[in-house]
Amino acid sequence: MEQDKIGCLTPSSSMVEDIDQEVKELLSSLPKPMIGTNFQLCLYQGFWYSTRTGQLQRLLSFQRCFQAQDTDIIIASNPKSGTTWLKALIFSIVNRTRYTPFNTPLLTTNPHYLVPFPESYLSNSKEILDLSKVPSPRLLSSHVSHSLLPESIKQSKCRIVYICRNPFDSAVSLWHHYCEMLTDFEMPMDEFFEVYFEGVVSFGPYWDHVLGYWKESLEKPNKVLFLKYEDMKEDTVSCLKRIAEFIGHPFSEEEDRNSVVEEMVELCSLRKLKNLEVNKNGTYMGKSPNKAFFRKGEVGKWVDYLSPSKKQHLENVMEEKLRGSGLSFKVSI
Hints:
Blueprint: E1 2-3, E2 9-10, H1 13-27, E3 41-44, E4 47-50, H2 55-65, E5 73-77, H3 83-94, H4 111-114, H5 118-122, E6 139-142, H6 151-155, E7 159-164, H7 167-181, H8 189-198, H9 206-219, E8 224-228, H10 229-234, H11 236-246, H12 253-257, H13 260-267, H14 270-274, H15 277-281, E9 283-284, E10 288-289, H16 308-322
Parallel strand pairs: 5-6, 5-7, 7-8
Antiparallel strand pairs: 1-2, 3-4, 9-10
Helix pairs in contact: 1-2, 7-8, 8-16
C-alpha cells in the first residue's frame, strides 16, 4: 500500500490485482443466487454483495486500505434509507459558518460527492477522492455493515451517524431503484418483498445490518447515533439539533432565535434537492443518474403494494427478526 496526498491509504496496482484475484477465487465457492433477471449476489461473511457491480472488491479495498481519523464523521445506512437526505443535512450542519443557503455547494453538487463513499473510489482508478481538500472533520459514508467496517473506523474516535428506515418502505424504495438502475431487472413487487425480508439483497440481510448498528449505539452511545427515517420526517428540527449535538456542532441560542435550523431543513428538503438542476440531469461517478437518488421519500406508501394477508405475514417476520432487541418499527397506518 502507498500513502498518498488524500489522507487515506489507496491500493497499489499490485494490491488491486491481488484483490481481484482473491474475489475470483471467493466467487467460485460462495453462494450466488439470482435475484430477478440477471442480477446475481454473493454471500460474504454473512452479508450479500452484487457480483455485477464489484461490491465485494470495494469492500475488501475499503477494509484493507482506509485509515480513519478521530475527527471523521461517518454516515452509515442500509441502501434507500434516507442516506442522500442525511448527507445534505449533516453537510449543512458542519459547514454552516462557511456557506449560506444561497452559496452552498448543495445547490450545484450532488450530496454523494460532498459526503462520498470511500469504497467507491478505492476500487475505481478513474475517480480520485482528494480528502486533502476537505477540511476537518471529513464527512464520509458507507453502506457496509458494522461488523465489516474497517478496523480503523471501529478503533478510532470518529463518530458514526446511522439512519434506518421501516423495512416495508425501504423495500419499496429499493425495488424502484433496481427497476430504474438495472435495465434487465424483472421481479414483481410482491415477490421482492419476500426476498427483501429474507435478506437476500445488496448489503442485506436488512435485519443484521440494522441490528448491528443498533446494538453498537446502545453499547457506545458516544460513538454511534442511531436514527429512524420516520422520526426525522416527523420532527426534522429536533432530530437535526440532536445530530448537531452528537457530532460536536451544536446550534447556539442565537441560531435558534434566527431560525437557522428551520432554514437548513428547507434547504435540504427532498422537494428542494429534487428540483435542483444538478439532481435532475447530472450523474454520479458517470454511471448513476442523480435523479435516481430522489424519488418520493414518503412514509407508509408500502400499503399500496400489499394485501392484508401478505402484510400480516411480513409483520410476523419482522417481529421474529427483531424480538428481544428493543428495536421496533411502526407499521400501522
